[in-house]
Amino acid sequence: MPSAQKTLNDRRPLATPAELSAYLGVPVATLYQWRHRGVGPKVHKLGRHLRYRWAEVEAWVDQQAVGLAA
């Protein structure tokens, strides 16, 4: 990926827990449980607010793929 495009992607707005909840289809409480247990996408604490980087969320989702035998 060209560095200019990478910089653009890195500058996307951070996701709130509510936005990520809707994207993943899980309750916000699940995101808080995952954070407490140290699983789930990487979360950043900005002051008292939790935020997620979309690129990190997408990488985490990709890691969750399970290869099932046919």
Automatic annotation (TrEMBL):
Tell me what this protein is called: Helix-turn-helix transcriptional regulator
- InterPro entries named in the record: DNA-bd_dom_put_sf (IPR009061), HTH_17 (IPR041657), WH-like_DNA-bd_sf (IPR036388)
Pfam families (UniProt xref): HTH_17
Task: Give the residue range of the signal peptide.
Answer: none
Domain Helix-turn-helix, first and last residues per copy = 16-64
Which Gene3D superfamilies does the UniProt entry name for this protein? Winged helix-like DNA-binding domain superfamily/Winged helix DNA-binding domain
